[in-house]
């Protein structure tokens, strides 16, 4: 593309330029971008593929080391996908100190920080722009802050969810407690009713025993109860009534005995 790019842009010594070239087997198109703008394209033959197993040479022609690059290279990266024009423009807009977007980091297969650790040939001098050092530190700090904010939001969300769950559990606990109190009241009422019933049964049992005793006394101390030889008034001479204080209970017992004797006279 050297011949076709000559009229596309001009360079001035001492200035930095963002250069990016892209190609993929699917598109078959070789594209060159300068400062984020498309400078030229070329269609490659069908079926052309990249050949692996060779060395990547920076700053010189790969076969004989001639045609050396007389300039400075900074932040060179190779990606495993064909970058879009938008992605290239975004990185170019940040200038010399551009940083790889997080969404493209997984596609960066050859990294500048790795290149800086490789063996150099010829006269190579490291160039460190203080602006980029500060920019990278600022970017690192920004990412740490974003991470911290994300973790803080995650913790707050977790706390809110936990609080909502606690309130839900508290509501269920209060409802269950109210149900238990209601059951407890019903049990107490049932217990009280059983006690009253038991007392009534005991009173009825006592009255029955008194009546049976009275009938036995009437039969034993008087005479057999037959029509014509005893009256109802003779009951008062039985041991259970004779010379006894006339209480309400005795009155109730007398009524029962009176009706029983009356049916036999």
Write the layout of secondary structure elements.
Layout: H1 2-5, E1 19-22, E2 29-34, E3 37-43, E4 78-79, H2 85-93, E5 108-110, H3 112-115, H4 130-221, H5 248-262
Antiparallel strand pairs: 1-2, 2-3, 4-5
Helix pairs in contact: 4-5
Description:
The relative contact order is 0.06. Helix 4 (130-221) packs across helix 5. The strands form two sheets. The protein has a three-stranded antiparallel sheet. A two-stranded antiparallel sheet has the order 4-5. The protein is built from five helices and five strands. The protein is mainly alpha-helical. It is rod-shaped.
Query: Element order, helices and strands?
Result: HEEEEHEHHH
| Beta-strand share of residues | 5-15%
Instruction: Tell me the span between the first and last alpha carbons.
Output: 143 Å
Low-pLDDT sequence parts: 221-227
* Rg value: 55 Å
- Shape verdict: rod-shaped
Reported for the largest beta sheet, the result is: 3 strands, antiparallel
Could you say which structural class the secondary elements and strand pairing correspond to? mainly alpha
Q: How many individual helices?
A: 5
- Share of residues in helices: 40-55%
Number of β-strand runs: 5
Strand order of the largest sheet: 1-2-3
What's the mean pLDDT score?
78
